[in-house]
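The methods section describes the discrete structure representation at length, but only in general terms. Each protein is reduced to its one-letter sequence and a matching series of backbone shape codes. I believe one specimen quoted in the main text would settle the matter. An entry of this sort, consisting of the sequence and the corresponding backbone structure tokens, reads as follows.
***
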Amino acid sequence: MFDASPAHCARACSLYPALAQTYTRSDIVRGLCQPDGCDEFTILRADRIAASDEGTLLKTRVRTFHASRAGRHERGEQDGYVFCSRFKPAVMAERAGRTMAFYLAPSATAESRERIRQNASFHALYFSLCHGTEAGQAAVHNLTGVARSLGYQVALAQSKLQPLARAEDILSSSSRQSADAGLDRGLEERPEQLVPPRAVPPSSSATVEARPVPQPIPPNPVQEEAGIMAAPRQLTNRMFDALDEVGDWVLGR
């Protein structure tokens, strides 16, 4: 989906000096990069709490950083949830007992390249938690290819936000399993290893199989949504913090 050629990388590094930094720690994953630096995180824990026939719900904790020419600075730790699913992958955050889910659209056909780039931290976080840090790093640059290599079949034409009463509501109530009833067995079917980077197919404009068209997401969310997502600043740094400003819900500062 994005040009990852050496020439392109060289140009990007000259524009955004933070990109020139290398991963000095294998556990740190880099997400969105802006002129003032890059958002990064490392996974502290990911606990399986429930599962359904559509996927597995994990309760997560990450430590976040901001990397720039001035160095790497820790931004703190943040709890959240991720729904590992080949059909409706999502990252979730909570505030005051309410939950907001961000649904990924790996085969987005109604989303601009810039919007997809701005969602890089969501993509990195989801695939790192569900498939390992190698997948998370690769998804930042080739979301469609990585998702396709892992067997994803997502009907969404663009990513979307959806409020939930609680994280568990993302599960299908008719097929929900408790963490004590076959959860590990269900997870054994979830791929944990990304195919080698050279084997990840290049992104293409492949069509998405015909399914009900999702409702479009307004570019300017209502203030209520901004309030729900104002708290989890550290989860993906500017990606969530941007929701504080109505009209900028996907734009980093």
About this structure: Residues 6-244 form one domain. The longest strand covers residues 37-52.
